[in-house]
C-alpha cells in the first residue's frame, strides 16, 4: 500500500503546502478576492464557513481520504486558494485532484497550471498512480474547459449525483488521465507554463 503523506511541492510560480489552521485568515482574504464563493455551481467556502471547511478537510486527511493543500504564489508569498488529493485509494494507488479554488485575480497568470503540474507529477512520478481523476459539475463550463485543456479524457457523467447547497441535483462529469498519457500531458503543461515565465 502506498503511503500518501503530507508533502510540500514547490514549482516555478507556486508552492503547495499542507493545509493548517494557521492559513485561515489568508484563505479568507483569498476567497474575498472576486467573491468566488458566490458562484452557484461551485462549493467554495465563504469567509464565514472557512474555519469549518479547514476542519472538514483536516478531518478527511486524518481519515486518509484527502490530502489538502494551500497554494501560495512564490513571487510574493500570497495565498491563492486551496486544492486537494481526494477520494484517495492508497491500495491502487489512485487519487482525484479536486476541491480546488483560487482567488479571482490569479486567473490566467499560470499559477493554476503550475499547481496542476506539481500535483500530477507527484501523483504519477512520486506515488506511482496508474490514473488520476477529476470531477466537476456538468454546468461548470470553466472547470470542464480547464480540465479538458490539461489533456484529461471524459470517462462519463454521473447523473443526479450530488445535492448542491441550494437543493439542486448535480450531474457530475468524471475525467481522468492515465499513466501512459502522462508524458504528453506533462509536455503540454510545461509548454503552457513557459508562456507565464519572464
Automatic annotation (TrEMBL):
Record-linked Pfam families: Acetyltransf_3 (PF13302)
A GO molecular-function descriptor: acyltransferase activity, transferring groups other than amino-acyl groups
Lineage: superkingdom: Bacteria
Alphabetically ordered keywords of this record: Transferase
Domain N-acetyltransferase: 14-153
UniProt cross-references to PANTHER family, sorted A to Z: BLL6696 PROTEIN (PTHR43610), N-ACETYLTRANSFERASE DOMAIN-CONTAINING PROTEIN (PTHR43610:SF1)
This protein's name: RimJ/RimL family protein N-acetyltransferase
